[in-house]
Design goal:
The chain has 225 residues and is an alpha/beta fold. The chain is 34% helix and 18% strand. The structure holds D-xylitol-5-phosphate and zinc ion.
Length: 225
């Protein structure tokens, strides 16, 4: 049995938002009770896609009061930490696969005034967190190979979430555990039972006509209402 004391947080992924009408989507996220906004930063090297940088984060920040949960899918993230914090990133999560001196990087994020997180690709084992989990506020488990929205959830991620939760309880119970990729009303409850306390969701919520209702429905499904 896993323990999970934190209230569930939802972090809609702006990767699936309508950037031509971003204000409308950001307002709908707030109206639907989103807790954070997940911002996917891709560089065309760490992942085979390009998205956005600090310039867009700054624009998003002007349009919302929700905390910005920035997921850096980039090589050499250290070179951009200050720019993202200056642009308004509240949380910065870096891939363990992309960083050579992870302790230095998470320390730097905290020094800059943001909350650090680390993220594991699907094929990266949980043991990669062992020495760093005590130093972060968030662990993100990828449940798809990063790079694109709308991919199918990898089922073995549920067991991985369970094992990450056990590690967090042992080493840093205040740390949040987030899941990203293919999260929907169909798997949300199972993920929460396994120990997730933050759900990132892009396609499943933004593909609905009524975004605010989709976010409320996801929360209801996740907590079993
Ligand atoms: C994938 C991104 C995810 C993505 C999730 O590389 O990190 O945040 O936007 O989108 P869905 O929920 O559509 O899988
Ligand atoms: Zn993401």
């Amino acid at each position: 049995m896993t323990t999970n004391h934190n209230p569930l947080l939802l972090s809609p992924s702006l990767l699936s938002a309508d950037f031509a009408d971003l204000r409308r989507d950001l307002d709908a996220c707030a109206a639907g009770g989103a807790d954070w906004l997940h911002v996917d930063v891709m560089d065309g090297h760490f992942v085979p896609n390009l998205t956005l940088g600090p310039f867009i984060v700054k624009q998003v920040k002007r349009l919302t009061r929700l905390p910005l949960d920035c997921h850096l899918m980039i090589e050499r993230p250290d070179e951009f930490l200050e720019a993202f914090v200056d642009a308004g990133a509240d949380r910065i999560t870096v891939h363990v696969e992309a960083v050579r001196h992870l302790h230095r990087t998470v320390t730097r994020i905290r020094e800059l005034g943001a909350l650090p997180g680390v993220v594991l690709n699907p094929a990266t084992p949980v043991v990669a967190l062992e020495e760093i989990v005590a130093h972060v506020d968030l662990v993100l488990v990828m449940s798809v190979n990063p790079g694109f929205g709308g991919q199918a959830f990898i089922p073995q991620s549920v067991d991985k979430v369970r094992r990450v939760r056990e590690l967090i309880e042992r080493k840093n119970p205040g740390c949040r555990l987030s899941v990203d990729g293919g999260v929907s009303a169909a798997n949300a409850a199972e993920l929460v039972r396994a120990g997730a306390d933050v759900l990132v969701s892009g396609n499943a919520v933004f593909s609905q006509d009524d975004l605010a209702t989709a976010i409320r429905d996801l929360r209801a499904a996740a907590v079993g209402e």
